[in-house]
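# nightly structure sweep
# worker-07 picked up a monomer target from the shared queue
# config: single-sequence mode, recycle default, output format = structure tokens
# input follows
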Amino acid sequence: MERNKMNNYFRLKLIDRYIIVKFLGTFIFMIALILSIAVVFDINEKIDKFMTNNAPLKEIVFDYYLNFIPYYANLFSPLFVFLAVIFFTSKMANNSEIIAILTNGISFKRMMRPYMIAALIIAIVSFVFGGYIIPPANKTRIAFEAKYIDPKKRKVGDRDIQFMVAPGTIAYFGNFDLSTNKGYNFSLDRFDSLQLTSRLTAQSIQYDSAYHWTIHDYQIRTFDGLREQITSGTSIDTTMQIVPNDFIIAKTDQQMMTLTELRQYINSQKKRGMGNIQPFQIEYHSRIASILSAFILTIIGASLSARKVKGGMGLNIGIGLVLSMAYILFMTISSSFAVSGAMSPFIAAWIPNLLFTAIAFFLYRRAPN
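# output follows
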């Protein structure tokens, strides 16, 4: 008996299939329409740079735009979900389809089931693409941008870099040039129970490969109680479990990492005492938070649009656009606070969802039944 109940609950009826097809079809249509416009504007904005930097047509199409489209489609998928739900639900309401569904004994809660199924499909696809498929593709897109569009995106170096290379060992670079893999004003301090045991200072340090470094014009001061021993030389080879990409970070590096790589990178940088991991933490938590956002915005969109209003579809779409802009605004503000260190990246990623969950609950309670 219980099994039959479960089968009946999950069996899709004609109205379920109708709403799911409408939802997914409108969602895909929204993505195709808005991103087509976005690509046209992007081409118009960047065509001068393409021509000035002699970007090959093949690379423009396959390296840039073939990766541009899925990246932005996935990035804004929660908002595409929101607009798609508002658009097709408003149309159903204006055609009195919602009234027909509700007057035939189907509650609004029951009507939301196919909406949630469609949202689940979108959330799973978005999570897999955003977490594991799009990041490797972003490497190609960002490399193209750095070569032909914005050379500032290239990682060139940094100043005043300090971090832990091993337990009790702190490295410092006055500055580092990534184009030559060479650092200047380098120091390496070793501690034993908070007691400084040795300090190496050098004019420069050169990275070779496989964690191999060459230190030039160095001086080593070794401390043993009140005694100090000083040695110096012109060159010495050493091994440190770091590479330049561990501490030279570009603004787009987090976009090129899968969820697994992000988690591993954040954990390793925390152990080293690095203080530049907030963008990576925000990226990690935002990708996970986006799963829930598809459901929240679906509930808001359906609750807002299910009622037939005098203003028609245009009024609902207008309200939807305002709420979409508010969602983006909250995401931007909270991310800025997290980058500055004033807010936890976890909280920053989830604040928009928490605020919009309250809105979803309020609108759902007021939805027609």
